[in-house]
Amino acid sequence: MFRKSLGFVSHKAVISTLFGAILSTSAFASQPPATGLGQSWPNATDVSVSPHYHVYVFIRDGIRYIQVNDMNGTVRGAVAVADHVVLVLPIGADAQYVSTSQTNVQTDKASSSMTETVYNDRSMQITATPVSSGGVNLNVMAADICTNPLECDGGNVVSRIPGG
Predict the structure, then answer these.
(1) Which are the contacts of 85, defined by CB distance < 8 A and separation ≥ 6?
(2) Which of 22, 61, 73, 132 has the fewest Cβ atoms surrounding its Cβ within 10 A?
(3) pLDDT, tens digit, for every residue of 122-160?
(4) What is the maximum span of the chain, computed from C-alpha positions, in angstroms?
């Protein structure tokens, strides 16, 4: 007795499918990619705080990988971070010059006046310093995470109270 138009059903199905695809795409866009590490121009968001470098973040199996490229796309170095442990990866033209607070890497002569921050989040900071050989020293430093709200501003330590 009652017939629905196939055109109306198809139109409704198409709209709901497109709406679902848009929502799922935006959910995927907020997650860092799990592949592309080691590539000159990975399909990932550049999160560098420097106009002279590109920094890409990848996450896989709970491990965060951070890669630093120069302006030409040359991979300079990368680290893996899990549970506040930083591991230097054997990736990039300057992998031998990547240092952390946990490693003691012999660095090339660098001019500290040329040091600039290339990545900074609530847990770490990466700086880059050009060296005379044409390479780049990358230094990964853990941020001073705040555990006492009276000493904090947005999760970072702003002062130390003696005896506190």
Answers:
(1) 102
(2) 61
(3) 889 999 999 988 999 999 998 765 555 555 444 444 434
(4) 87
Nearest-5° angle of CA 111, CA 96, CA 64?
A: 100
Alpha carbon distances (Å) from 81 to 63, 68, 78, 134: 6, 14, 10, 27
Give SS3 for 149: helix
Q: How far apart are CA 54 and CA 28, in angstroms?
A: 22
The DSSP code for 131 is B
Q: 126 and 118 in contact (C-beta within 8 Å)?
A: yes
E strand or H helix that includes residue 117: strand 116-120
Residues, the chain: 164
Contact predicate 66/81, CB 8 Å: yes
Q: How many CB atoms lie within 10 A of CB 123?
A: 13
Q: At 13, which amino acid appears?
A: A
CA distance 17 to 24: 11
CA atoms within 13 A on the CB side of 31: 12
56-80: pLDDT as tens digits: 999 999 999 999 999 999 999 999 9
Q: Which two tokens stand for residue 134?
A: 């044409």
3-state secondary structure at position 43 = coil
- Residue found by looking up tokens 């951070």 in the block: 66
